[in-house]
Amino acid sequence: MKRAITAAVAMLSFAAILDAGDAGVAITRQRCSDASGKTLWESTVTTAPVEGEPGAYIITEEGKGRYYGFEGETSCRSEAKYTSGSEGIKPAWLKRTVLSASGKTLLEETQDYSAGKDEVRCSVKDLVKGSEKSRSFKYKGSMINKMLTGVTVRSMLEAGEKQRTVSIVNDEPAVYSITIKVVCEEKITVNGQEQGAFKICIDPNIGLLSPAKAFIPKNYSWYSCEPPHRWLKFKGLEASISSPVVEMTALEN
Q: What region does 155 belong to: left with phi over 0, alpha with psi -120 to 50, or beta?
């Protein structure tokens, strides 16, 4: 149970990812700050359509700074391919690499959804601890990964839905169920500009009566009310359940 809770919380900080829609390449810059307002890290997310593959996109996130769980300054590069169409959002693969300030590889993660129908093969290699985990999962219904959380939220808002339940695979690796909920509409100020936003909560489905449920701090993201429902802000735990509360905001390009 503790592993599942940690995984659910860690996923929430990836809600900033957007898809390219019909406009082509989309770029989002974001900053993560601690409770005092000190910058921890910044990243740039690029989403681009795959040439010759209608409905296919690749998301690339490149960041640098002090990420929770690693010593000193690190850089992180993540890539994920997915398709969006009549059958919904379908992940194809994911790759993530974390490097030290000197360029030494600290962590490598991969997810491959092409092994078979409704199956994902996962590998996480921790070069600091000298450990490697490999697992395969069969699943039914909607499956996403942490890079596709924001894409899923946007598709839900575009469809006028107030709630959606999906399965998600993370870097333990493990698979679990989450429910994405629209809490309310409210006015928020980002980059000195006030605008209407949907307040979104992503809730791990671990049971309403589970004692652990009470110890999970609330994590929220805000998306613009106006299409294309751009991600604006996140407030909650940076990573695992033991990580600090942070605030991430979209920066002006």
A: alpha
- Helix ranges (H only) for the chain are 2-11, 149-158
Smallest Cα–Cα separation from 45: which of 94, 74, 93, 80? 80
Distances (CA, A) of 9 to 35, 97, 99, 161, 205: 18, 20, 23, 23, 12
Span 56-75, pLDDT tens digits: 999 999 999 999 989 999 99
β-pair partners for 44: 29, 62
Task: Return the amino acid letter for 77.
Answer: R
Residues in the chain: 253
Both tokens assigned to 27: 């770029």
The pair of three-digit structure tokens given for residue 80, joined into one six-digit string: 């994920």
What average pLDDT does the chain have?
Answer: 86
156-204 pLDDT tens trace: 999 999 999 999 888 888 888 889 999 999 999 998 999 999 999 988 8
The DSSP output letter for 225 is S
Closest by CA position to 64, among listed 47, 76, 79: 76
**Separation CA 104–CA 107 (nearest Å):** 9
DSSP 4-34: HHHHHHHHGGGTT----TTSS-EEEEEEEE-
Q: Which residues are 58's β-sheet partners?
A: 48, 81
Helix (H, G, I), strand (E, B) or coil at 191: coil
Amino acid present at 11: M
Q: Are strands 143-145 and 163-169 parallel, antiparallel or unpaired?
A: parallel
